[in-house]
Amino acid sequence: MKPRTRTFLAAIALAASGIASAQQTLLNASYDVAREFYKDINAAFIPAYKKATGKDVKIDQAHGGSSAQARAVADGLDADVVTMNTTTDIEFLAEKGVVAKDWAKRFPDNASPTSSTMLFLTRNGNPKGIKDWDDLVKPGVQVVVVNPKTGGNGRYAYLAAWGYVKKKGGTDAQAHEFLTKLYKNVPVLARGGRDATTAFLQRNTGDVLITFESEVESVNKEFGANKVDVVYPSMSIVAENPVAVVERTVAKKGTADLARAYLNFLYSEEGQEIAARHSIRPHSPAVLKKYSNTFKPIKLFTVQELFGSLSEAQKVHFNDGGQFDKIYTVK
After folding, report:
1. Which residue among 96, 183, 273, 285 is least packed, with the fewest CB closer than 10 Å?
2. Eight-state DSSP code of residue 280
């Protein structure tokens, strides 16, 4: 090979390595059942970002129980963004100085581009005739639910049931009694949302699964349509899906602009459409109206309305020695 040719090829190789090293990589640490949603978000964001900036980017995902993911990031996982299903997990990172103290004001709608709610999945044909929360405390009904001490899915299920009693005019003592009956019908607590779905559909545990509305689409895709009946109770809770930039990581990697662009994309019409297609409730009124067949009418109440905030609910209900520990005894 001629020296000039070798020099030319070496220059091409050097340029290629420079392009590769210049390509920014973003890591999104997210909750358990959001895998497929973010796969679609990433596939749409990458070309949109390239068109807007001329830059190539690579998006990596890390999924697990929401609280477990928050702990991993606090312990050093170099995620550029966190996309969780409970605000307490991001507040935990804010307390650690990993995300901004005012993270909830950095993006619209309390930094929650989407939301969900809790509903029931029953066996095909709904053999136990489950229609509302009261049916979950009947003798002989086995309920599959996530441990509220380890997963946001479980915390929202617990708060939705407690709120159901309160919204009907019940006292805290009556809510406590209702939850005690409900958890007596729980054969085993699941670790996270995906674990609960697997227990219900693969291990055939229980008669009814309490889970996020957004899990319905995942179940249909993974296990096939018509494996379950979807039951909307008379009322349920708004479950916000908060997001934040991990300031510690983006300062180190120089990815602050990319991280902000990624999270802002979730608020775009395209991002909201992708959410709706995954049965995740968009904030956009136009997109919500377009997908009215997906999002059935349901009376919703907020955490703030009944519990002050998720942080306050955490202290009262889920911290060691709280209401949940008094309600649930390990079987």
Report:
1. 285
2. P
DSSP output for 166-197: HHTT--HHHHHHHHHHHHHT-SSEESSHHHHH
Could you tell me what percent of the chain has a pLDDT over 90?
77
Strands 208-212 and 143-146 come out as parallel
**Confidence check: pLDDT of 331 > 80:** no
Tokens of 317: 């209900």
Both tokens of 232, joined, read 């909307």
Bridge-partner residues for 236, per DSSP? 300
- Mention every residue, 6+ apart, whose C-beta is less than 8 A from residue 265: 41, 44, 45, 48, 49, 271
Domain shared by 253 and 318, yes or no = no
User: 272 is written with which tokens?
Assistant: 């909201």
Which ranges of the chain would DSSP assign to H, the alpha helix? 3-22, 35-53, 66-74, 87-95, 108-111, 152-167, 172-184, 193-201, 215-223, 247-253, 256-265, 269-277, 285-290, 303-307, 310-313, 323-327
Do residue 154 and residue 250 come from a single domain?
no
Q: And the tokens for 88?
A: 């307490």
pLDDT of residue 33: 79
Report the C-alpha gap between 177 and 170 in whole angstroms. 11
Residue 273 lies in a domain: no
Domain contains 176: yes
Could you tell me the two tokens for 85? Answer: 């299903």
Residues 25 and 142 reside in one and the same domain: no
State how far the Cα of 141 lies from the Cα of 137, in Å rounded to an integer: 7
Q: What is the 3-state secondary structure (H, E, C) of 8-37?
A: HHHHHHHHHHHHHHHCEEEEEEEEHHHHHH
Range of the domain at 103: 3-112+242-266
CA dihedral (105, 83, 114, 58) positive or negative: positive
pLDDT of 52 above 50: yes
Count structural domains, the chain: 2
Q: How many residues does the chain have?
A: 331
* DSSP per-residue codes, 217-242: HHHHHHH-TTSEEEE--SEEEEEEE-
**Model confidence pLDDT, tens digit, residues 143-182:** 999 999 888 889 999 999 999 999 999 999 999 999 999 9
